[in-house]
Each structure stands twice: as C-alpha cells, then as structure tokens.
Amino acid sequence: MRFLVAWTTAGGKAITLALRALTIALLLAAALPCAAQSDTTPPTVAIVSPPSGATLCGTVPIVARASDDVGVVGVQFKHDGMDIGAEKTTAPYAVSANTTAVANGSYTLTAVARDAAGNATVSAPVTVTVANPTPASGSCKFIPSFLVYLGGGPALVADDAPKLAKFDGIEIDRFRFNEISPNVNAWAEIKSYNPNVQIFLYVTGPEDSNYHDGLPQVYLNDIARYDVSRGHPMGSLNGDHPELFLLGSAGNRIYYTPQSNVATNQYWYLMDFSAATYQAYWLTAVKADIVDQPWIADGVFADNCTATNVIDFGAYSAVPTKYPDNARWSGAMNSFAGAITAGLHGYGQKLWCNRGDTRFAGGSAAWGNLDASASPPDVLLEEGAFAVMWGVGDVQFYQESDWKRQVDTMAAIRNSSVAMISHTKLSEGQAGTDNWGQPVTFWQTLWYSLGSFLLAKNDQLRNSYFMFNGGSGYDKIWWYDEYDMIYLGGSVGPYAVTPIDTSSGPTNVYWREFEKGYVYVNPTPNNVASVTLPQACQATPNPCRQLTHDNLLSPPSDLPAVTAVTLSGHNAAIILKM
What we know:
This protein is of the alpha/beta class. The chain has three domains: 44-130, Immunoglobulin-like (Sandwich), CATH 2.60.40; 147-485, Aldolase class I (TIM Barrel); 496-576, Immunoglobulin-like (Sandwich). Helices cover 19% and strands 29% of the residues. It contains eleven helices and 32 strands. The strands form nine sheets. It has an eight-stranded parallel beta sheet. Strands 4, 6, 7, 9, 10 and 11 form a six-stranded mixed beta sheet that branches. It has a five-stranded antiparallel beta sheet with strand order 26-27-28-32-30, with helices on one face. A hairpin with a 5-residue loop joins β1 and β2 (14-20). The longest helix has 21 residues, at 326-346. The chain starts with a strand and ends with a strand. 44% of the residues are buried.
C-alpha cells in the first residue's frame, strides 16, 4: 500500500510523492515516545546486606540494590517465599526485619524487583541464621557494635539510614538531624529500620570555649555561654561565674591546648567540674540546647570525662591547684559524671561518658568506683582500647600489662555498658609498621582488637560494644563483614592464659572457649610458632576450622582444618567448632 501526496515547490512545479505505509510506520515509531514501545528488559536486583552466611538477631535492616533501564517501581523482600513488610517503592530499597517474630534457625532471603511493564527479577538467595538469645537482655549480637560519627564526614543521605541502623549505638553531632531531608528527622529515619538503636548527641563535659558564643545551638559542641547566657537563668560563665574556671599555680585559667589558639585569644577552658554550681549550670544548658530541641535523641555523649589526669595534664596548660593529683582528679570527675547522669535521667535522657585511661591502674580503679556509685553513667567509653593510632608508628600496641588491665576492666563493669574503640592510622587493606618496629596491617589490627574485646565480653549482662576505625577517624560509617559473619555463641567461661616458650622467652597466649569456637590473642611482640588447640580439635576427622578475614565469606566446610595455629606478635586467631 502507498499514499500519494501532492507537493508544490517554491518554483511552482508540482511533484507527487509516494509514501509507502511501511515508511510512515517507521517514521511514526521513531516519533513516538519510548514509553509506548514494548519494555521487555527486566530489572536487576541483589541483596547487599546482610551477606550470605550472616547470623542475625533482634531487628535488622535488609538492604537491596536494584536498577532498571526504565525505572524500578517496587522491591519486595521475602524470607522463604513469605513477604517481609510492604513493597518498597522508592530507594533506598531496605526493610526492617524483626527476627524475633520467627524461630531460631536457617532462612533464605530474596528480593523481587519489578518495573512498570510488569517485568520482575528475583535476586540470588542469601542464606542467614537467626539466633536470638534467651533471655533477651542487652544487645543480642555476638559482636555488638557502635559508631562515632563526628566532624567533617559526608552529609547523611537516605541510603545511610539503613547502614546506621545496623549499629547498636551511635554518637553523632546534633546538626545532622535533618541532613537526610530538611523535613525528615534523621534519627526517626534510622530508627524506622531498627527501633532499638540508641542515638547520643555530642557535647563536652568539663570544658567550655570563649569563641562559640555566636553559634546557633544546632552547631554547638560545648555549652558556649562564655559571655552570653542564651537565656540561662544563672547568666553567663565569664560574667557571672568566674569562680568556676579552674586555675593553675600561677593563678591563670587552665585551657585545653589542642583546641585553643593563644594568638587569636581563643581558649577551651577547663571548668570546676566537681562544683555543684557548674554541674547545675551544665545540666540546665544541655536541657536548653538538646533536650528541649527538635533534635533530641536517646541521650547525651559527654566528652573528656577522663578517669585520671595522667594524659590530660600533658594537654592542659597547667595542673589545677584544686585537683593536683590522680586521686583528687578521679574523685572529682566521678562526682561530675554521677551528678549529670542523675540530672539527665530526670530529663528522660541517658548519659554516655568518654572516660579512657583503663590501661592505668588509677584509671581502672576510677572506672570501678564510678560503676559502684549511686548513679553510674549508662555507657562508659574507652577511646583508646587495645590498639591505637596515637603515638609512634601506624599502630601502637600497648605492653601486655596495660593491655591486660584494659581487658580486665572491661570485664569487671556491671552497672554501665562499656564501649571500646580501637583504631589505626592505616586505611583498609594498607600495611605499615607498629610502635615495636614490626610490620602490621589494617586487618591484623582489627582482628587483634576484636579478639581482645571477645576475651572480655560479658555474655550474661550483654553490656559490651565494639568499634574500629582507620586513618580517617570519625568521618566514615565503619562497618565490617566481621560483625555479621563471626558467631561463636555463648562463652563457656572466662579467658585462660597459656605460657608458651618462644625464642624470645616465655610468652603468654590468652584464649577463651565459646559454644561454637575459640578466640586466641597474643598481646606481646613475640612470635609464637605453634599454639596447640584443645583436645576437641585433635579428633579425626578434624572438627576445627580457622576463620580469617580472607576466608570470612566462605562456607565453613571450605575453611582449613587445624590442630594448631601460628600466632605472631599482636595477632589474634578465631577457631570454629564444626
């Protein structure tokens, strides 16, 4: 079939054009919008969290990545063919899964993505194990984890909410409460994936600056009332309470040197933290700045509530005449921590204190005294646990006696939760040199720190939490497959110590048995060529397998069978019972 079309040119000459139907059809097809054409390309979809083989408990986010050449209109999560919640119609494709609603055991997770044309794709299955403990007190996870996210990290986006919901606790700046969306409370968005995550907002404890008076409350990290009151009924600190500034022997106000600049008259002053007047002033300011604001969260993180003056007196401009030694400093700081704990509880808020100093005898004692007091804080933080980025080398490993004191202090706390941070200057995958002059890697440091944590973790109280970060500090969401994949069940008992002869002399190897495996830690620089595993691992066929970072995602049956392990200096080993 063809159509005749008459066309008169500019010169007046008539021309007849023949257009075949096929030509018109092609032209029409080219002119029509793509949506009118048939869409036969299905979406792609994959579950990205949790990884296959993970052990889950409590409420966890399940996250998928989906895409389509036209557009994904929905992703439905399923376990063993049954829907988990409603279909997600917008990114991020994530759902909150309450594992306590099902029996403990093995489950298969899938995600089904569909597009507007009705094309659908089922993701590759992810096999997980649900293991909810009884009774369900504290964190149910084998490795309870927390995150400190402060300062100059990237702004939060919608995809970050399910990532953050994987942690048990988060310490964060208050200004991030509306970063995900101007009209969305970020704390509520995170809790929509895990209502049990606890969020604490940062503020300094015993200090105040003279250069934050003009900042809006949402950007504060101290109480910022040097020459202004901000409506505080007790007035300003400098104008109305000069007696609250701690003085050195020369009569000058003491300041924290890392955050002060003498040339520009900017000072971060140390306040009289045991004075009842300062404690009342601090609580009233925090209520106005945090508790009565839309960014209120579960609690307040109070920084620099240090247990001793061992480290502090090198960082402050002078020694306070009122607290010139460890005993008086520790007692005064415990008074401050207890008072603000009680005060915040009266506001319905929790307190997380940055204490530190557990590697020192005085610090360990101060932790114990505060734990036994009338008002122990809800959480105590050790910011320098087991391995740290501070000092010489890419990692500083403490000497064995200091390391052991940290492990024992952590295990002894009964009335507070304990949060332990380990870190390194190295980034993921990097290698360097430690303070003992030995080669060290990022993953070695993580496993050593994690092994140390597991030696001390209290399985009855479930009050212990772990964090590890690399060289960029607190500006990244630090999550590792280790948190999902390592599961050894309950502990059989406390850790034991086995001395082993080495070329460097007797070396103590610390180890602990769990229902499903063992943890070994060498807290010395000495290399141990062979650590014989317990009799249960000597059977035939061998029931014990060594888990490492490199084989973490492999099926347990594929892991190497072991009857003994090599444990180089400052290393840890995890053994699975099969």
